[in-house]
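STRUCTURE REQUEST FORM
Protein name: Endonuclease V
Source organism: Metabacillus malikii
Requested output: structure tokens
Priority: standard
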Amino acid sequence: MKEAKLIEEFTTEQRALLPKVQLKNTFQIDKIQLVAGVDLAYWDVEGKTYGTCCIVVIDFSTHEVVEKVHSYGEITVPYISGYLAFRELPLIKAAAKKLTLQPDLFLFDGNGYLHYRNMGIATHASFYLNKPTIGVAKSYLKIDDIDFTMPENREGAYTDIVINNKIYGRALRTTKNVKPIFISCGNWIDLETTTDIVMSLVNKESRLPIPVRLADLETHVKRREY
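Status: completed
Returned output:
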């Protein structure tokens, strides 16, 4: 299928899902027991692209790993900026089906509401996982040529990312003297809770929340294996 046709089809689906996004909590934060990090990695072999999705589940209180699953397969959807979810969802769904434990919340290495059409991977995937989601990006996705404001150099400092008078996400400094990350609601969660949860999952080993960092590390392991 030609790219223009794919973009038309993908855009239609994103726009249909957007009214169903709720940037408010559908859970009680003190009831959260398990949280999961999700990340993907890709590589090419003989002209074909393959990928792996790794999901790492940790105990929200102790931060101990309680389950790890992954999926693997050939990637058939081309990379199109702004439509990454359609490339990644088949592997995400395949990995999630292998979970024997059910996380209360999923954190993605990628964007959620901070997206051209407010439908980044964390937001889009929520409809298939049926759980609240958070987007955690290492780099900034510039939308409508709007830059972010650098937060103060202290742990927990943040600045809202405002585009067309709407808050899309936050630039969050999780660690002093380390560059910020870019967080956004995925779905069924508000931005204040998103910020609190991300900060509660950061330790001295990384600026990323623990489950996202562990999922990222796991993708490197699986890529080497395959």
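Reviewer notes: The chain is about 30% helix and 30% strand. The mean pLDDT is 97.
Form closed.
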